Amino acid sequence: MTVIEINNLTKAYGKKRGISNVNLRVNRGEIFGFIGPNGAGKSTTIKVLLNFIFPSSGEAKILGMDCVTETDKIKESIGYVPSEVRYYDNMTVEELLNYAKSFKKNVDDTYMKELCKTFEVELTKNVSELSLGNKKKVAIVQALIHKPKLLILDEPTNGLDPLMQQKLFKTLLKIREEGTTIFLSSHNLTEVEEFCDRVAIIKEGKIIEVRSIEDLLIEEKKLSEVFMTYYEGEGK
After folding, report:
1. How confident is the model over 148-155, as a mean pLDDT?
2. Hey, which of 58, 137, 192, 210 has its CA 20 to 30 A from 162?
3. Burial class of residue 206 in the structure, from the number of CB atoms within 10 Å of its CB (0-12 exposed, 13-18 middle, 19+ buried)
4. Consecutive H or E run containing 212
């Protein structure tokens, strides 16, 4: 089953580059990596998938539903962790999670408590007191409380210490086994190579290659080598 389907997707910002004719398929149960430098189009693609911005042309579907016309239904089944986490400062973490829970169906309170324990989330703290890393941990818990069918992660390890990064990927592997599909945008090529099944490389708003990590291992190549080939101009 295809969980994410993107067909000839274009987002133009006038003279400023967005994305152009992006085509991508992400299958159920994959951990799919999405890499490229700043300004390559990663965040624009994610924002279109989440219906934060409208495409100029083309289409994107999640779980067979159109990302523009059926976004309400889509958001019932997905979780999202942004690269930069912003919350209302005058709420406690517990209030924030309960507020998030009110938008979801069939949230298991026991599971939510387990996630808070795993990621060492302090429920009584005010959001204004949280560091970048602690806000990111809250965002991860918020994204997982309803056991989403698709989890979209935009630079999820930014701000997390190495131990918490390990806990995150241990959790991701576990929920993947339970059927969750994971779309991971990251600058960390090592974590993409270690945990992802396939990876798409985007450059100047266009997908230039989609590779399976297994193929790279067979070819005895590192993802960093493939990435640098394109970004040094040799792959043009």
Report:
1. 96
2. 210
3. middle
4. strand 206-212
Residue 236 has pLDDT above 60, yes or no: no
Alpha carbons 123 and 85: distance in angstroms, whole number: 17
| Tens digits of residue pLDDT in 164-183 | 999 999 999 999 999 999 99
Would you say 227 and 189 are in contact if contact means Cβ atoms under 8 Å apart?
yes
pTM: 0.93
Distances (CA, A) of 115 to 15, 42, 122, 144, 195: 44, 28, 11, 8, 20
What's the pLDDT tens digit per position in 39-61?
Answer: 899 999 999 999 999 999 999 99
What is the arithmetic mean of pLDDT over 18-24?
95
Please, which residues bridge with residue 66 across strands? 61
What six digits make up the tokens of 225? 């080598």
Which residues, other chains included, contact 85 with Cβ-Cβ below 8 Å and sequence gap of 6+?
Answer: 132, 135, 136, 138, 139
Residue 163 to residues 55, 147, 166, 188, 215: CA-CA distances in angstroms?
Answer: 38, 23, 5, 16, 29
Distances (CA, A) of 152 to 18, 60, 103, 184: 19, 14, 18, 6
Q: How many residues does the chain have?
A: 236
